[in-house]
Write a structure and sequence with these properties.
Strand content: under 5%
Number of strands: 0
Helix content: over 70%
Distance between the termini: 44 Å
Shape: rod-shaped
Length: about 55
């Protein structure tokens, strides 16, 4: 007998995986921006704004 599908749970798992992937990409982007010499005050403010968007 085939299992009964649980569409809501499967969708939640896909959404969770997508959110984790998006967060990892954003963290990599921020780390790269900091490593590239984001030492100016404008760059620091932009980096802080990007981090606040995700929270």
């Amino acid at each position: 007998m085939a299992r009964k599908p649980n569409f809501n749970m499967e969708r939640q798992e896909r959404d969770k995986a997508k959110a984790a992937k998006k967060a990892a990409k954003l963290d990599a982007k921020i780390a790269k921006k900091e490593d590239d010499g984001a030492s100016g005050p404008d760059q620091a403010a932009e980096t802080a704004a990007i981090r606040n968007e995700t929270e």
